[in-house]
Each structure stands twice: as C-alpha cells, then as structure tokens.
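Tokens help. Our protein:
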Amino acid sequence: MESFKIFIETICILATIFLIIKEMIRSSQLLQQEQYHIKGYLKCLKRIYFYNVYNLIIIPTFILFYFLNNIWIQMIYLIILSTYYYFNRQQTIKELKFTKRIIRLWVIHLAIITTIYTFIMWEIQFTTLIQVLLICLVLTPVNLLLSHIVIWPLEYLIQLYYVKKASQKIKMIDAKKIAITGSFGKTSTKSILYHLLKDKFITKMSPKSYNTLMGISLMINNYATYSDEVLILEMGATHTGDIQKLVNLTNPHYAIITDIGPQHLETFKTIENIINEKLAVISSPNNQLVVLNKDNQYLSSQLPLLKGKNVVTFGLEPSCDFYASNILYSKDGLTFDIFYPQGKLTIKTKLLGKHNIYNILACIALIKSVDDFNKKITDEEIIFNLENIEPIPHRLSLISEKDFIIIDDSYNSNPNGFRNALEVLTLFKGPRILITPGIVDAGKMQEEINYHLANEIHKSCDFVYLVNNQSAKAIAKGLDELGHYNYEIVRSYKEAREKISLKYQQGTILIENDLTDNYFVRG
C-alpha cells in the first residue's frame, strides 16, 4: 500500500509540473501576442481567472487543498487535472516564438518562482509537495507577469542598445528611405513597391510585418547594407507616439499614407488620434513627398493643413492626381486604367480586391513623382511587373484544395478589406462559405462595425461559420435580424473546416481574419 501511495503522489507531482510548463508556454504566448504590453496581458488574466476553464482547477482543488496528503484525495486531484487538460488541450493558433527575450523571461521566471516557493515551503509546513506545486500552477499566469515587470528595465536597456545601433547605421546608409503607413494596406503596398523598384535599384524592405520600433531596428541592423539605394519601411502603430519614434529613427524622404479607419481603437480611443498618429510620418526633416489616399474622408479632410508640403493624391475620382477608371473585376484579377497629369497606364494584375487598386495607385504615384525613379523605370516595366506579381500569402491569395477554392484573407481584417473580400467571393461559384471571427480591435465601435457587416455577409454568403468571440456574436445578431439563419458559431477555424468537409463536396471558402489566441482569451 505504501508503494502505491508513493506511486500516486509521484504521478500527481509530475502531472502538476507538466501543467505548470504548459501554462508557462501559454502565458508567454499571450504576453508575446500582446507585444509585451502589460495592459493587454491584464485583460487576458481577467478572462483566464474569471471566465475560463481555469476555474476547473481553482475551485475544486482548493476545496481539497488541505487533504492532498490523502491517497484517495490525490486520485480525485488527478481526475481534476485530467479534466482541466482535456478542456484546455486545443491547439494554439499562433505558436510561441522562443526569442532571446522569451528565454530571458523564462530564466528570470524560474529564478523568481524557485525563490518564492522555496521560501513558502520553509515558512509553511505543507504536508506534501503537491500543495506547493498546486499554488504555483494556479498562479503561473500571475507569476509570469511579475517576472515580466522585474525584467522590464533590462529589456528597456536592450531595446535602447539596438535602436541606437540602428540609428547610427542608417545615418551612414545613403539610400532613399520610403515610409509606408496607414490603418490598412501597408504590407501589400510595401510588397508591390518593392516588386516595382528591385530590378533597377538595390532595394530592401522591412520583412514580413516588421513595422514596430524593434522590428525596424532589427531590419536595419540585420538586413540593410551600406550599398542599398532604397529602403522601404513599413510603419505601424498601436499607441500614440509609435510613428514619431520610427520617423526619429529613420528620417524618411518619402511617405505613403494608404488609408485610415477604425483600427486599434482600443488603444487609440478616437479616430482623431489615429489621424494625427499617421500624419506624424510627414514630420521627418528629410521629407520631400507625401502620397496619400484622397478617397479616404479622414485624409482628404487634412489636405488644407498640408499646405507647403509636396502632396500627391490618389484615388478613384478624377480630382485625384493619380486616379483609376474603367475597372474590371474578375476571379482572375483586376484590369483598370490609371490616369495622371503626364499620361495613362493600362494595368492588368492577378491581385484581387478593390483595395489593391489603391495599393497599386499609391506605388505608381510615388514612382512617377520622384525623378530618380521615373527616369529609370519605364511604363512598360511597370505594366510587366504588375502583370506578373503574385498575390501576397494570406492577403486575398487563392488556394486550390481538392474541389474547393480557398480565398485566404486570414492575415488581418478591417471593414473595407472585409467588404472587398466579400465582393471577391461573389465572383466564384457556390456554395460560397465564409469563416470569420469578425473585426476586432475596434474599441467601442467594435460591436457596431460587426453588426453592420452582417448586411454584406447576408448578400454574399450561402453559409457562415463564425469563430466564437464578441465580434462574431455581433455579426450573428445582425444576421438573425436579416433572417439569415445559415450560420453556425464554432470554437475554431479547424472546427469550421471539419464541418465544411462533412457538409459540402465543393465550393468557395473565404477565410477572413484568423485571430491570434490573445483575442479569444481577452473576449
């Protein structure tokens, strides 16, 4: 009997340690997806402790806490842990990246919990090690936050080092620096512009979505070289002052502002703050040209304030310096004419969606307005390159999968992009199926935005799978009021795909926005 008791206790200890490691990974993953902002992570903690499956261990185990030295209670404890693991076993959407920062965080975290829990064991006479490990398990998300706060001064100094290093290096690079910012369209515009410039100039662009201060610093330190002739820098912002920091670092010569809308309202609070943030890109002392979207009401309202700046506008109206007309949409791409003061271009491209017209317009407006670019790049080269450019992965890219066509627009989402994606969906054969969690990060406007999107969804889709969160519920409310009952709320994208394979033999599937885990935990 004694050996059996030791066996059960050992299993309890190992099972608890296993779950502690799992919780460390999940908590680190959430902190990383919140870009290490404490405020966002605190929202995750609130959801974890008050609305999550975490309560499966918190409530039952603390009822049994003082009896965990009993073999029968330990067996019940194992059942509780197994139940918790079962309900919390779903695969993460975005895996934890084991960066140097995460490794440093884990070293500090392990040092802190070892110190704290050794002290607890020293001061309090627990009857079994399981009790100490249980406290550690329940408090792992909080312990990680404590570790993050402790190590923050060191991380701040490390950031300062890399930013200063990048600042010194970029001053020695004699390249034309192009800043691209906006609420949406930054990465696509950057990729298109790179495709148009790279054959005639030694060109580097910030990789993937490296658009933060550390991301741009990393790009400069690791990718930029002294022989580069053009640097294309995507500039993103989630907080006031982010763009100004990037401008101070890089001092770009040219700026493109793609679009402005209700993105990151949770942190910016108002559209006015977003407008001011994006316009900070113009504050560079080297600024020679601003290319902006005149069709955007927020940007067009700022034009009177930009007197004295060299401003070139683009859009679909003839009042713009560069405008598109004679637009033809098809499932094979876009065809349209671009008119500008010096001439006309007829563009044919495999890129899908109305927003890509704006992205292309922005790039051509810049090239035609900068003498060094315009002299070296011919109209024929522009037309050829745009005709051969491939869609950017996860941004309205097409994938053939057996008898299904997948329209992958999963990278991110905004109201305009969502509507454009639905418009593309209507170009394909049915059944037309949508998988989406809706639009997130729109602050107080989030419910309203998603509620109104239901009308476009109703017109475009035969069936809708809503990945469960608050935004999806707002869409569901709108669909109910429209009498569109062909929808289902699911727990994950994976579940939606499984249901589609059982229900349909063929069709077109639009994947609009594939949220990272922190949005689901935050609720």
